[in-house]
């Protein structure tokens, strides 16, 4: 990668944001963060990240609502979105994918798994 890809990390748990941000920066990615869905949409419109790691269960706007807004916007809909959630049930996975998520990672996040997903979506 000649230019660093920018990844938006969206999670209402500061610990999760810190862990992901640290890992992404060690892998050479630029990061921006948001702690709720409303903030995530503001960051997406402002920075147009190359990829979004999106938690589902958040205050203000949940991940599903954020996903619907991203996919409804012609300028944003092509940004890959990977849902990162503690929800392991297939119902949440299916709902996220149906709403346009490009992938799904469950917490706790496995480092190698995350790296593979990033390579899949960012090249």
Record keyword descriptors for this entry.
Rossmann fold; 123 residues; alpha/beta; globular; 5-stranded parallel beta sheet; 5 helices
3D architecture notes:
The chain is an alpha/beta fold. It has a single domain (6-122), classed as 3-Layer(aba) Sandwich (Rossmann fold). The chain is built from 5 helices and 5 strands; from the N terminus they run βαβαβαβαβα. The chain has helices at 14-26, 37-47, 63-72, 90-98, 111-122, and strands at residues 6-10, 30-34, 51-54, 81-85, 103-106. It has a 5-stranded parallel sheet, with helices on both faces. Helix 2 packs parallel to helix 3 (63-72). 30% of the residues are buried. The mean pLDDT is 93.
């Amino acid at each position: 990668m000649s230019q660093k890809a920018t990844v938006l990390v969206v999670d209402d748990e500061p610990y999760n944001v810190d862990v992901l941000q640290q890992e992404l920066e060690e892998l050479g990615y630029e990061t921006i963060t948001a702690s709720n869905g409303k903030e995530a949409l503001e960051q997406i419109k402002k920075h147009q990240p190359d990829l979004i790691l999106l938690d589902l269960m958040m205050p203000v706007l949940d991940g599903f609502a954020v996903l619907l807004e991203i996919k409804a916007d012609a300028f944003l809909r092509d940004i890959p979105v990977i849902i990162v959630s503690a929800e392991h049930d297939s119902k949440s996975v299916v709902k996220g994918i149906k709403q346009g998520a490009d992938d799904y990672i469950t917490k706790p996040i496995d480092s190698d798994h995350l790296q593979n997903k990033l390579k899949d979506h960012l090249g």
